[in-house]
Design goal:
Blueprint: H1 20-32, E1 36-39, E2 45-49, E3 54-58, E4 66-70, H2 75-80
Antiparallel strand pairs: 1-2, 2-3, 3-4
Length: 82
């Protein structure tokens, strides 16, 4: 089972996101205007935000609908997601 992470406590997106509403807005904006996106198996979709090194994975089959994180390895992290 995956560990749920609080992006604010973990300091992901530090200086960009300070609360849940900002996090939700960030995700919506990236999904609407990604630098890059790719459809994956199982109905999943990955989105890349080059400006903030953000990765969003939409997973319609998962109860939490996916994940989002700041990629410390840059686009390499995004590219490895299959």
């Amino acid at each position: 089972m995956k560990r749920k992470v609080n992006i604010i406590q973990e300091e992901n997106f530090k200086g960009l996101i300070e609360n849940k509403n900002q996090f939700a807005d960030y995700i919506k904006n990236v999904i609407k205007n990604p630098t890059e996106m790719e459809k994956l198996n199982g109905g999943r979709v990955k989105y890349w935000d080059a400006k903030n090194q953000g990765v969003i994975i939409y997973d319609p089959k998962n109860p939490d609908q996916g994940t989002a994180f700041q990629a410390w390895n840059g686009k390499e992290s995004y590219d490895k997601i299959k």
